[in-house]
Amino acid sequence: MDSYKVAILDGDGIGPEIMAEATKILDLIAERNQVNFELLPAPFGASAYFSHGHSFPEESKAICDKADAILKGPIGLSHEESKKIPLDMQPERGALLPLRRRYNTFANFRPVFLPKGLAHFSPLKPDIIGDGIDFIIIRELVGGLYFGNKETGINEDGKRFVNESLEYDEDQIRRIARVAFDTAKKRKKVLHNIHKSNVLKSSVLWNEVIEEVGVDYPDVEVIHFLVDAAATYLCLNPRQFDVMVMENMFGDILSDQGGGILGSLGLMPSACIGPKKAYYEPSHGSAPDIAGQSIANPYSMIGSVAMMLEMSFNMEDEAKKVWQAMQSVFAQGYSTPDLSKPGINAKMISTDGFGDLVTEELARL
Ligand code: IPM
Ligand code: MG
Hints:
The protein has helices spanning 15-33, 46-52, 58-66, 79-82, 91-102, 126-129, 170-186, 201-214, 227-236, 248-262, 299-311, 316-331, 351-364; strands at residues 2-9, 35-41, 69-72, 107-115, 132-140, 150-154, 160-164, 190-195, 221-226, 243-246, 269-273, 278-282, 334-335, 347-348. It is an alpha/beta fold.
């Protein structure tokens, strides 16, 4: 029997609630495939800071080090609550970025998937949605402004100043470019390269390397697109996109816009892949305002499980079935309060109600 160790990082806010639903799915998959998922819970995020004095404690690092894959819930506190934690220990800087850096998870996959059955959640008009929207944002995750040199201080004029640099070398760009081209090759063979080369030199180098790598992929068409224009066209005509590649900060912003297209960040799972280790997480935050009420939809967490099954454990068929099971629960008219909007006539269920229905549906597939 194959056995895999999966580190489980519940995180903060709604994290534990949605993670509980994700592990139900894993239990079912394990049982019917004769595999063993050894789940290894590890404290992470603001909750870990309060219980262990560190938002990414040593014991959690050790668990993640030995895991075959990491499943991570959202982290973070409200703006006010965050102030109770020293700046460098706040979960974004103290846990999430160190996790990305530790495992060099440079390739972040963020699918923006809106099949017709989910169209009612989207704020876009039916003629823009057409038969559905399905593209993937590939975000470079361990470079750029997030990890560049940072300096703060007082300048010669006695003014406070800050200097944060957007840093990439050609190897960092080349490896994410390869991931993007490989992905485009498996899909519609069109790659939108998102940049700002009319202003940023980082984008000039980025585009050069994209062109160089493109030589090895003659069957993939590259379309260069300015990031600001991309933001506009994600609203006006998102169906033109299939695979989009971009640097870290652009990817952070446009992937949230992807959530906007779907109608909720709650519909955005993601995969963060490094050379030796991968972790999977919802793209959204911990939603402290609705935590503990069992109203958050676990779609992004369960979708992250699907991505883990496919990308870490070669279980592509099961991954497809997990997506299918979730679509089918929505198609039967169910929803959770966090996704509901006035005018949506849904049968309202709780977080665990949704997880149970998806599990039942999956058992039938
Ligand atoms: C994301 C999040 C993180 C990021 C935050 C929580 C640091 O917004 O994964 O998109 O900016 O990368
Ligand atoms: Mg973000």
